[in-house]
Amino acid sequence: MIQTAIVVATALIVAYTLAMYVKGRGKSDADSGADDGSASPDLSFVFLVPCLNEELVLGRTIDRLLAIESDHRFAVMVIDDGSTDGTAAVTESYDPDRVWLFQRVAPNARQGKGEALNAAYRHLRQHVLTAGQSPDDVVVAVMDADGRLDPRALDLVAPHFADPRRASVQIGVRIHNASDHVVARLQDMEFASYTELFQRGRSALGSAGLGGNGQFARLSALMSLGDAPWSDCLTEDLELGIEFLLGGWTNRFCHETHVSQQGIVEMRPLIKQRTRWFQGHLQCTRFIGRILRSDLRPWPKFDLAFHLVNPLLMLLLQTASLVWLARLGWLVATQPAADTVMMFSGVRPVLLYLLAFGLAPVVTFVYLRAEPKLGIGAGIAFAHLYIFYGYMWYFAGVRATVRHISRRRGWAKTARTTGTGDEARPTGFDVLPYLPASVRWFARIAEPAPTPVARRTDALIELVTLDGDPIGRLDELLAHRPAELPAGLPAERVGALR
Amino acid sequence: MYISMTPVAAAGASVLGVELISSSTERTPGVAATLTGANSPLLTAAGFLLIALALVAVAWTAKHPRR
Predict the structure, then answer these.
(1) What CATH number belongs to A9-309?
(2) Taking CB atoms and an 8 Å cutoff, what residues of chain A touch B42?
(3) pTM here?
(4) What is the ipTM of this complex?
(5) Which of residues 8-67 of B touch A (CB under 8 A)?
């Protein structure tokens, strides 16, 4: 009975995989954004680059971003999340009109990527509103500090936002050191095959997911999720994509462009990373009920629910697989040698190969299409290695499940403390120097800090009258009571996105 | 988030494969294979040759997409 269930589940997964591939291939127009019309010329982009001690790679990343040629305005906001190296200095060496430094310091810093993004988002939101710019026309792009974005990315992504209900667009992710190490190559194969087999199909279905790198989200869609669109979930990107869909927005995957990142080259940190992803998936299973009760169409609803259950299914099947492999080993060890010879003769080993490596041709095909420079022999060999590589998920899955059950969730992050996260501001948006002298208000630094860096980042700006009567905190006024802001506040400054 | 489902299929497939082998063993009396019988090594070689050819054909097709 159990064996039958496993075989049926496997058959369904293979069928689902092939169906998604066919579905994705049939929607090339939607993939290219051609059916969405033209993007608004006012559409502008802000790259959010969360950093924690990234001085070695950050400069190159900023250089690449600034080299992008696009019809759309864009700026880079570096989120220095409590770095102790030269991350801030690297950022400040660039034109502050185009590269903004947003610093977070203890105790608010190092609360995880989601909190860093939320703080930067809140700051950006305030200034966009103050500048009178429509949040519909601002797209936030999340980039890793070592990310290398395709220079065509903005112009390829922008048309997808012509649809006013489009919340987000995810682009492909590749590994730029794939040729240097076999583990990096297998990660590249994983990303490329996931993209081609699943993301394109899910995009056509209307259930495309978001990843942590190469994620483009419309500011107004983020605002529909409140002050903290990125949660403290270990896979905050996955959760964000689901929240958009449940909120009536749409997501899209753009396969024509990609961002590349540095691959991990050792198995131990790789398994640690995948453990975090797996546990994040487990955390997101709490959405299944909401998904099933939602107004989503049946297929996206099914796909989303299946996507969340998939890791558990994978864990069960891989456990069963290992049990049966152990049984085979026991048979070989205990039975007469003649029986073992019999087991591995004739058509049976061929059948076993086809069953175990049956998806290798699919992976070979998909990856060689994505990486045509790779030779035929290498493509076939890596596709076989990839099958073994997939069992890495088993170890990550077991570890993640144990951690999830034992409610351990903070291993990848420092302990959380209270704080608004709004304490920081980017130098590119520096407020105080631009307050008009003629205005009958002045700003007071409410919480001065001992060092120049801390003073710049810890500032909570409180508006008071010349008589000293409090008006309120600037960030609260910007967010909730913009009408009460005194005329002439730095709107003309913060509107400069480029 | 990128959790590939390819290993799932591989896992399930190997379960099925091992089960096939195990059940076939239970029926096998331990007779040596002959060159023309169902357990012929020629059959094994021919099977893997076909698989290799199919893989090369798939890879070649991927590297030479139709315009």
Answers:
(1) 3.90.550.10
(2) none
(3) 0.77
(4) 0.72
(5) 8-22, 24-25, 28, 30-33, 37-41, 43-44, 47-48, 51, 54-56, 58-63, 65
